[in-house]
């Protein structure tokens, strides 16, 4: 996988609670057609075998469109399906262990909520950092909020790419302009929409406009 920061521009994160009778892989395809540049499979309620089945189905789509495929919080699943990488939470041990298991060629993303966590993640070998929640979100009940100032400082202090996450919509994305982020990660503003392709298309145009002006 030819991964670089451009692939983080519009990072879709899946959520089964928005399926409404559709399949996850079909939703992912719709989001890709609209312009998401990476996808993270986030499965919070599946056991190992179910997660594996889901990952294989989604990977068929991401392979077809050559979109980077990241697994949330599960190095074993990432290895089993040969995903492009993993996204993990706050544990230094995790990053180092994950790197040992995945090797140099896989992507490791790490969540950070402050400057120190971001610097530590970079030192421990993360490839990118996810910072949030930058706005209020109903998607993750335990997500604390990170201020614009902190987001900006993180972007200044680390060399690896930074994506913002949490409550980002087409209406508030412009508030992230000038922070230095490389992209945004989004669940509900894409997968919670009636027309997923249209939502990601509009979001893609807005991210480009707001982040690079
Ligand atoms: N981590 C911090 S906020 C969040 C995660 C996974 C939820 C993002 O979802 P939404 O719907 O884009 O606010
Ligand atoms: Mg930076």
From TrEMBL:
Textual note on the cofactor: Binds 1 Mg(2+) ion per subunit.
Residues bound to 2-[(2R,5Z)-2-carboxy-4-methylthiazol-5(2H)-ylidene]ethyl phosphate: 137-139, 167, 187-188
Pfam families membership: TMP-TENI (PF02581)
Catalytic activity reported: 2-(2-carboxy-4-methylthiazol-5-yl)ethyl phosphate + 4-amino-2-methyl-5-(diphosphooxymethyl)pyrimidine + 2 H(+) = thiamine phosphate + CO2 + diphosphate; 4-methyl-5-(2-phosphooxyethyl)-thiazole + 4-amino-2-methyl-5-(diphosphooxymethyl)pyrimidine + H(+) = thiamine phosphate + diphosphate; 2-[(2R,5Z)-2-carboxy-4-methylthiazol-5(2H)-ylidene]ethyl phosphate + 4-amino-2-methyl-5-(diphosphooxymethyl)pyrimidine + 2 H(+) = thiamine phosphate + CO2 + diphosphate
Amino-acid positions noted as binding Mg(2+) in the UniProt annotation, renumbered to this chain: 73, 92
Leading EC class: transferase
UniProtKB keywords: Magnesium, Metal-binding, Thiamine biosynthesis, Transferase
Cofactor: Mg(2+)
Pathway of action: Cofactor biosynthesis; thiamine diphosphate biosynthesis; thiamine phosphate from 4-amino-2-methyl-5-diphosphomethylpyrimidine and 4-methyl-5-(2-phosphoethyl)-thiazole: step 1/1
EC number(s) recorded for this UniProt protein: 2.5.1.3
Limits of the Thiamine phosphate synthase/TenI domain: 10-190
An annotated GO cellular component: cytoplasm
Superkingdom to which the source organism belongs: Bacteria
GO MF annotation, one: magnesium ion binding
Residues engaged in binding 4-amino-2-methyl-5-(diphosphooxymethyl)pyrimidine: 40-44, 72, 111, 140
InterPro entries: Aldolase_TIM, ThiamineP_synth_sf, ThiamineP_synth_TenI, TMP_synthase
Gene Ontology biological process: thiamine biosynthetic process; thiamine diphosphate biosynthetic process
Gene3D superfamilies, per database record: Aldolase class I (3.20.20.70)
The keyword Metal-binding appears for this protein: yes
Role this protein plays: Condenses 4-methyl-5-(beta-hydroxyethyl)thiazole monophosphate (THZ-P) and 2-methyl-4-amino-5-hydroxymethyl pyrimidine pyrophosphate (HMP-PP) to form thiamine monophosphate (TMP).
Family affiliation: Belongs to the thiamine-phosphate synthase family.
Protein's name in the database: Thiamine-phosphate synthase
Species assigned in the record: Mobilisporobacter senegalensis
Native organism taxonomy: Bacteria, Bacillati, Bacillota, Clostridia, Lachnospirales
